[in-house]
Amino acid sequence: MFNLDWKPDRSSPVPLYLQIKEYIKDKIETGEWPVNSKIPSQRALAEIWKINRSTIVTAVDELISEGLLKGRSGSGTRIINNTWSLMTSTPPPDWNSYVQAGIHQPNFSTIQEINKAEFYPNIIRMGTGEPAPDLFPRAMMKNVFNRLTDHISPLGYEEPKGLLYLRDQVSKHLKTFGIDASPSSILIVSGALQALQLISIGLLHRGSTIFLEKPSYLYSLHVFQSAGMRLFGLPLDENGIQTKTITEQKRRQNASLLYTIPSFHNPTGVLMPEARRGELMDVCEQEQLPIIEDEVYRELWLDSPPPPPLKAIDKNGLVLHLGSMSKTLSPGLRIGWVVGPEPVIERLADIKMQTDYGSSSLSQWTAAEWLSSGLYHQHLEKVREELKVRREVMIDALQKHFSDIAAWSVPKGGFYVWLRLLPALSIRKLFEASLEKGILLNPGHVYDQHSSQYLRLSYSYASMSELKQCLPQLSLMIRQLLK
């Protein structure tokens, strides 16, 4: 909840506890930390600021004595007053009541912890689903920016569906793996996540049921749930979603739509083979069940290209296809696309214009230049080579340190190894113990509440040396927790 980018100055003559006290007091006085909010735990503050916990205790105790904070055993320390409320009988606004009244559900607490911990200094991110900083093509990006200066527009607002030049390049790109889509059937979005948000509020009724694999990345979000939708998980095997369950469950659940990640599934890494894709299309056509095909990992194949996308074999406009550059090039570019029937794309484009008036013009021109110049395909080849090496490093370490305590499959692409721990243990304790050692994990339960003995390990973000260092440490921590 709170941004803690400040750090106490060890070279200052002012004692550390007074610096901390004044920092917290200033946040309370300015209203940045509102009344009724719970401040971070003393242990968390000590870890973030790299100081002794007793120093935090001293600062907090003084703020409690001044009537600004109140500590309660087992429930943390809360802000109960600000300096203005101590001087007047008029109480300040209770912003927490507004926060709790918002219609969009908050992230799971574990997801919030992960999102914050990813930016702790010296943290090793073993679950992060994005390319490593050293995979960023700096020289190529500089080349792209240099090219842009010759023909870039004044960077005004683009048309509702996005920059036409980019949509034309995306259309050509999609043809390379079998999707025939005109620019008018393509919407440029700020990453695939925005596409899901637009679909949730633009195409479905409140109370609708969404089918998806179980586990799934979608369970870690509240995009559909906050729009009043219900998620219903279907069984997943080594070939992807089990199609034999769809017909019966469609009638029982009155499902409106099916969401799937057929290529290098998040979090399991499963690749849906061509035969299963055909079965899925057949049953969904029979049941008139539209499909959201999330293909953001498609181009990250490591052994051989995946089968054609569902959209490539879609003859009846059943599939909404999502693509993105976030996993392949740069998440900060915030460029993705939705491919679908033109009336659907028109509807989603209209809603997008109401929410952000279009994705960044600079990002759109940049993405178009990457595609049109051929640099994007060159970059993909280098990324695949690097990810293949990283995958082998992780698999070798798992075989050496986890063969007796875990099970896993070797992914054919994407970022993830879905690790199942064989002995039962508290993943929460493992998460906390790892974090204390500077290792950040993604527990399986955020992707499915029943996957409590799983970890999503990523070989895409941590450096090679970090992969080799962390996995033996993780194995040791697991064994210590089992004692």
Describe what this molecule looks like in 3D.
The protein contains 17 helices and 16 strands. The protein has helices at 16-29, 42-49, 53-65, 83-87, 95-101, 109-117, 138-151, 164-175, 192-202, 223-226, 246-253, 274-287, 342-355, 361-373, 375-401, 427-436, 464-481; strands at 69-72, 76-79, 124-125, 186-189, 209-214, 230-237, 240-241, 255-260, 291-294, 319-324, 336-339, 406-407, 416-421, 439-440, 442-443, 454-458. The strands form four sheets. The protein has an eight-stranded mixed β-sheet with strand order 4-11-10-9-8-5-6-7, sandwiched between helices. The chain has a four-stranded antiparallel β-sheet with strand order 12-13-16-15. It has a two-stranded antiparallel ribbon with strand order 1-2. The protein starts with 15 loop residues before the first helix and ends with a helix.
In short:
The protein is an alpha/beta fold and 483 residues long. 42% of the residues lie in helices and 14% in strands. α8 packs parallel to α14 and α16 (427-436) crosses α17.
SSE topology sketch:
Elements: H1 16-29, H2 42-49, H3 53-65, E1 69-72, E2 76-79, H4 83-87, H5 95-101, H6 109-117, E3 124-125, H7 138-151, H8 164-175, E4 186-189, H9 192-202, E5 209-214, H10 223-226, E6 230-237, E7 240-241, H11 246-253, E8 255-260, H12 274-287, E9 291-294, E10 319-324, E11 336-339, H13 342-355, H14 361-373, H15 375-401, E12 406-407, E13 416-421, H16 427-436, E14 439-440, E15 442-443, E16 454-458, H17 464-481
Parallel strand pairs: 3-14, 5-6, 5-8, 8-9, 9-10
Antiparallel strand pairs: 1-2, 4-11, 6-7, 10-11, 12-13, 13-16, 15-16
